[in-house]
Amino acid sequence: MSALLSEILDPSLVVLELREGTAAEAILEIAELLRDHGRVQDYFKFADAVMEREGRTSTNTGEGVAFPHARTDLVDRLILGIGRTTPGIRFGPTKELVHLIFLFGVPKQMVTNYLVCVGGVARVVKDKTKRDALLAASTADEIVEQLRTGALLVE
Q1: Chain segment 16-73, per-residue pLDDT in tens
Q2: Which of 149, 147, 150, 151 lies closest to 14, judged by CA?
Q3: CB-based contact 134:125 (threshold 8 Å)
Q4: pLDDT tens digits for 70-88?
Q5: CB of 39 within 8 A of CB of 79?
Q6: First vs last Cα of the chain: how many Å apart?
Q7: Nearest partner of 64 among 155, 135, 145, 153, judged by Cα
Q8: pLDDT in tens, 107-145
Q9: Could you tell me the domains of the chain?
Q10: Which of 134, 133, 62 has its CA nearest to residue 98?
Q11: Cα 30 from chain centroid?
Q12: Which DSSP string do the residues of 9-22 spell out, in sequence order?
């Protein structure tokens, strides 16, 4: 597994059950968590950047997963907040609901690192068994461990 992915996985940045019902509200909820843990300089500008990016092209993968993100100077290192929702949230024009949201904040100079990290997470969630394990996890620690273990197995 990429050392970078291991560095940004943090159980305190996982929302086990998002309380919000729209893509924009879910992005705000996860961004709020990142702000509360000191990972984002300006929460409102960061959330706006993520939503502006999402508005151009949805990051819904079609597998019940979305990867909203922003390349911005509002973060000084690569960050990842994770949200999960049992009922699902609509992201973009597709009818398939999203249940796992991986919100990345990317410093403008760290595009390659972002691609390595998002690629690691994407390889894990592409596998239905691994995705189901993330959905069934009962704690944030378990979600992070599933991602770490899954990334090790696919690389």
Answers
A1: 999 978 999 999 999 999 999 999 988 899 999 999 988 888 888 889 999 999 988 8
A2: 147
A3: yes
A4: 988 889 888 999 999 999 9
A5: yes
A6: 6
A7: 135
A8: 888 878 878 888 888 889 999 999 999 999 999 999 999
A9: 3-154 (3.40.930.10)
A10: 62
A11: 8
A12: --GGGEESS----S
Residue type for position 128: K
Q: How far, in Å, CA of 141 to CA of 62, rounded? A: 26
| CA separation for the pair 13, 86 (Å, rounded) | 18
Nearest to 18 by CA among 87, 83, 82, 108: 83
Place of tokens 């398939």: 96
* Residues making up the chain, counted from first to last: 155
CB 141, CB 11: distance < 8 Å: yes
Check: CB of residue 103 under 8 Å from CB of residue 31: yes
The identity of residue 86, as a single letter, is: T
Q: Which of 60, 123, 131, 128 is nearest to 96 (CA)?
A: 60
